[in-house]
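Training component of the fellowship. As part of building independent skills, the fellow (R.M.) carried out the full modelling exercise for a liganded target. The chosen ligand was copper (II) ion. The inputs are recorded below so that the supervisory panel can assess the work.
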Amino acid sequence: MKKIALIIIAALLAGCSGHEGMDHTSHNSASHAMSEGIVISAARVLPPFPGRDTAAGYFEITNHGKTADRLLSVTSPISDAVEIHNHIEDNGVMKMRQVEGVDLAPGETVVFKPGSYHLMMFKATLPEDQKNVALTLNYQNAEPVTLIVDVEGRGEGSDDEHSGH
Ligand SMILES: [Cu+2]
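Fellow's submitted model of the complex:
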């Protein structure tokens, strides 16, 4: 009987955290989505520079859950080869490296931004008038989530993230 009681308590606790999670969806938008306590915000895709075909993707990812998870990969219909990269310092020189995944510790936020973690989307097919891009985030534990992300900065050359490729 004791075991059953514990299971019921566990279910109640799960229900509570589920309600906490619901609060995060109250300001849900195209670039804001969650899966089991993992919340993505500020998601955007930067299209390739003229004459190039590598797009970049940025977002902030927060694990509001109680358990660790890991972002394993990202897929998108605009590119068959979306890689997660990070910048690391190698003998005083910042270099881009592909990473196999990003750990998402409970309560922590990982920011994908120029000079840090970022998505590289190789051979991207992105028509000039395309305003949104779908990104599907695949996790070790949580269910995959597909975001519809704004295409940002079209025609602006302020970001040199792609220059290393
Ligand atoms: Cu890169």
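The panel noted the following from the submitted structure. The pocket of copper (II) ion is lined by residues 85, 96, 118, 120 (CB under 6 Å). The CA atoms of residues 24 and 39 lie 8 Å apart.
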